Structures are given as C-alpha cells and as structure tokens.
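As a warm-up, study this chain.
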Amino acid sequence: MAETYLTLTNKVIARLNEVALTSTNFSNARGIQVQCQNAVNESIRYINQKEFQYPFNHAIETKTLTAGVVRYDVATTTKTVDYNTFRIIKDADLNVSGGNLKILNYNDYINSFITQEDEINSTTTSTTHTDSVTTITVTSTSGFDTTGTLFIGNEQITYTAIGSSTTFTGCTRGANSTTAASTASGVTVTQFDGGGVPEFVVRTPDNNYLLYPFPLKSFTLKYDYFSFPTDMSAHGDTTTIPDRFAAVIVDGATAFVYQYRGEAQQYQLNMQRFEQGIKNMQTLLVNKFSYLRSTFIPRTGVYSSGGVDIRSV
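Now compare it with the structure written out below.
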C-alpha cells in the first residue's frame, strides 16, 4: 500500500509513543500531532533540497509556442532544467522537421541578437471571436502598422485599417494559406518581421528561457526538468519519494520533532541517521558510473631502419 501523509505521520507519532491519527480526525490534529505533520513535510523538503536530480522528480514539459513571443516561463514547481534536452517536435502540418536546440549564453544573446525583440508588436484579444468575424478587438492597437498581418495561434489575419485604439478592421481570416479559427479572450496577438524555427535556447537571469529566432508558428517545444514537489495537506496525499525510502522520511521527521521540542541529543541521533539515509538514496538513485576506455594505440610495424632502432630516435 502506498505511503500517505497519514501513514507517514502516524509512523512518527508511534516513535514518540503518542496517540495515532485517523482519516477522520487528521485535519483536526492538535499539539504533538500537528508537529509530526509539519515535520513530515519538512523532512520531504529537506530530502528534495539535498539533491537536484532525483529521478522520481523528473518530468517532461510540453509547451505550445506562440508566434512572435520570445520569452517563456518554466513551470512553477521547477527545481532545475536540463537545457541540453530542449527540442522542437516534428510537425508536418507546420512544415517543421524538429530537432534539438543549441544553448546560447545570455550575454552573447544580448550582444548579438536581442534586436529581434524590437521587431515584435504584441497585444491580447479582449473578447471572443468566431472564425469568420472581420473585426478583431484587442486590448490596444498601439505600435501596430496601419495595415498588415496579425498572428493568432497558427492563423494569420490580414487587416486593411486600424478602426480604433482597440480594433483592427477589414480583416481577412485564414490568410497566407492558414486556417481560420475561433479565439478566446486574452489570447496573444502579435505582428512581426523575421522569426523562424527556433535554433537556440537561452537561460535568462530570472531562471526562465527565451528562444532565438523567435517562433513564427505555434511549434511544440519539449524539455526535461526536475520539479520541487508541493507540501502534502490532505490525509491521503502521497509524496513522489518511493515508498522504500519511507523510513528515511520518518527518520528526518522524528529528528525535526525533537528539534521543535528542544531535545538536542535525540535530535542529533535521529539527524545522523537521516543524513546517512539521504546519502544512501543518492548512491542508489543518482550516482553515475563512468566507464573509461583507453585511447592508446600501440605502435606496430617496422621498428628498425638500416640497423637503427627508430623508436629511440
């Protein structure tokens, strides 16, 4: 049976010889029981903070890119991103063959390519639109050309005039061999020159990422990352840590409860066992063994010429 917030908490309570909780009274815990609940979450957080790349926290993000958008946010639970895994997914409908992205340093991007961001105007729709309306209503038309092309998802829309500070009029839907589609309110609308299929990914100073060149269609991007799980709250919640390491969680939680209570000796004893358990987890789950192969090529063939050993020359 999978370990739950309730079962882990009760294992800590048992070590302290206190009254166990049930699924019925779990949310009404008091005193030492609450300390045990808090200690379980603190133990799990501590385990996750000790190692960035536990396999049980591995995830793959699938992101639909927006035409004309350069910068993107990682998932809110992200601990670390493997930038070597960024790739565009093959899509015949979008005429993209797919492939891995190369990593570009942020300073190099600033020095050489940031002007791509000056080519883009962006706003959002302020209402819903069917796939046939010829007036597009947005938050603001400021900065857009008096006539031109809008990009919404995979649809291109040409317009003949800016009707007001919030409308584009004379729209032709599904322009340039794209398909007209209905849109919701709050959808990104862009206008730009340039763009293409992204070739580079750049880690930004705020630990998100940007793409160069920026996408001109709604390509699909994938990458691997490791998440930082949220705390458990309901009695039936489970942790991403495998059940076979439940004892490590309980060791840590027990140590933290003794710390709360000011019992230094018991805290130190349980903390030592907790730290050793984490080291064992890292050995079993994370450590990589590199196998080295010799590149030495022994010299073969004739070693003498005219009676002289050429190896000594």
